């Protein structure tokens, strides 16, 4: 009896995991692709040529690129500081870094609006000087920065912690300064974790909806990113266009996942 | 390269706990010094302080007469080998070794060919010329150890600091690398400081042993001085198997509490004291007492072990002679070659060997 159940359990668990992954992850992707291609590939591609659609793609690409660069630099700095130095308040900073993950993105959007909106603390003054943040691209970038900040830092920190400080200290004693140590020792060694964090940040930045929805003002062709444009299209009963754009987002996201997998494999081969 | 520490105290980060307490130490140019002591004695902390790796300290630390932080890292001429070797995992052995040269400012960096020559030279020195292209993950412990050493030597340091360099190696490799290191030290005119918890290893390789305990230096001397005149019971116990016999000093004699052990002359103030002795310094006086002796089964290096059973205690002694049955009956124990230590409060004066 027990022997039989011990043979059956793994099979049941495997089936269960496949079912759950199939229902929750694969099915939605397939459905999105199906809906997008309902009237054929040509129609779907045509909807992406719409000026507003193109503007949203451009905006998302631009915001994602800027946010990924800034948050990679910031995340590396934060992870380095928090793992390689002892100082008062380090623990508090670690939990603060996680705040964007636990706080609803809508709240993040609202905070920026409170600061930079027309009625906000600094919004009026900045507006007089020709700087528009709320309902403009800088606002979208700020909101996305906030939401995606934790990813690079949080994927790097466990790795850097486990590395310890000996490699950095060795590099220092061998005469390498801060930058040389960072570029030649710390980052290459944490390479895989860093890349993982960067790709996560990219994927998350592309898909951010809540925070951006609040601060961008939803202006079609100006401040609408891809996720916002999908909502606009869907609410306007343009379901093929909405799903075509959704499919594009999904494909890009899946590509980042595949890149990650591929790089991880080649990395493993290089360092058995 | 000479090192001078005076009244050097180091605190644990963000606390007033002392990791190193009022250290005074001088290491002469070309000396080979071993820092020994139990874990937590502050050996590694002291080594790191000498390398300039620590903060939170006060007191004087001079390298060749200059405070260490007055000199840029590249000019300090210090090679450091970490306990876990800390090789750069993503670099080949050759690039690991070349690192110190690769990061030199352009003006002082040798050209590619020169760096390549130096690496080849060092690979020959550590007897691993075939492993230039290997990654650290592919090496054995002993090989990693030697690569770490080669990397530390690449920039031509004059001071070599080694933290438990033989810790992870098996006994045979340990002995080989130890001899090789000593040879290297002599050939390259290095000043070497190594940390180890193994006193035999330290005695084998170093000229001077610095015995540490709880952040303080208890005694710094060569091996024979430490053996002949240990400063405290701790030093004596740390350096080898020790037997302890409590007793009293009374009018020029040490009288053990155990009546099967013979009193012996000792000049010192009257009071409670303890005799410390190595098992091979114990002798037997056959027919003079009540104790009995049993032979122990294992003996090594031509030495015999005997269990001595007295009315109050049993302990083991070591002797090169094979005792006859007559010699093993009704013995009294002679410990007159032992060293007398008074209880802690009175142990300020250096004890005299008996």
Number of strands of chain A: 0
CATH superfamily of the largest domain in chain B: P-loop containing nucleotide triphosphate hydrolases
Strand content of chain B: 25-35%
Biggest sheet overview of chain A: none
Task: Give an overview in words.
Chain A has about 270 residues and is mainly α. Chain A has one domain: MetI-like fold (Orthogonal Bundle). By secondary structure, chain B is of the alpha+beta class. In chain B, strand 9 and strand 10 form a beta hairpin. In chain B, helix 2 crosses helix 3, helix 2 runs parallel beside helix 4 and helix 3 crosses helix 4. The longest helix of chain B is centred in the middle third of the chain and has 17 residues. Chains A and B meet through helix 10 and helix 11 of A and strand 6 and helix 2 of B.
Describe the protein's topology:
The complex is a heterodimer of chains A (272) and B (354).
Chain A: H1 2-36, H2 40-47, H3 51-84, H4 90-97, H5 99-102, H6 105-116, H7 123-128, H8 137-148, H9 150-163, H10 166-173, H11 178-189, H12 191-207, H13 210-216, H14 226-235, H15 239-270
Helix pairs in contact in A: 1-15, 2-15, 3-8, 3-9, 3-12, 6-8, 6-13, 8-13, 9-12, 10-11, 12-15, 14-15
Chain B: E1 3-11, E2 18-27, E3 32-36, H1 43-51, E4 57-63, E5 66-67, E6 78-81, H2 93-102, H3 112-125, H4 141-153, E7 159-163, H5 171-187, E8 191-196, H6 199-205, E9 208-213, E10 216-221, H7 223-228, H8 233-238, E11 243-250, E12 253-256, E13 264-265, E14 271-277, E15 283-285, E16 292-295, E17 304-309, E18 314-319, E19 332-334, E20 339-341
Parallel strand pairs in B: 3-8, 3-9, 6-7, 7-8
Antiparallel strand pairs in B: 1-2, 1-4, 4-5, 9-10, 11-12, 11-14, 12-13, 14-20, 15-19, 16-17, 17-18
Characteristics:
A: 272 residues; MetI-like fold; 81% helix; B: 354 residues; alpha+beta; Rossmann fold; 2 domains; 6-stranded mixed sheet; 5-stranded antiparallel sheet; 8 helices; 23% helix; 30% strand; disordered C terminus
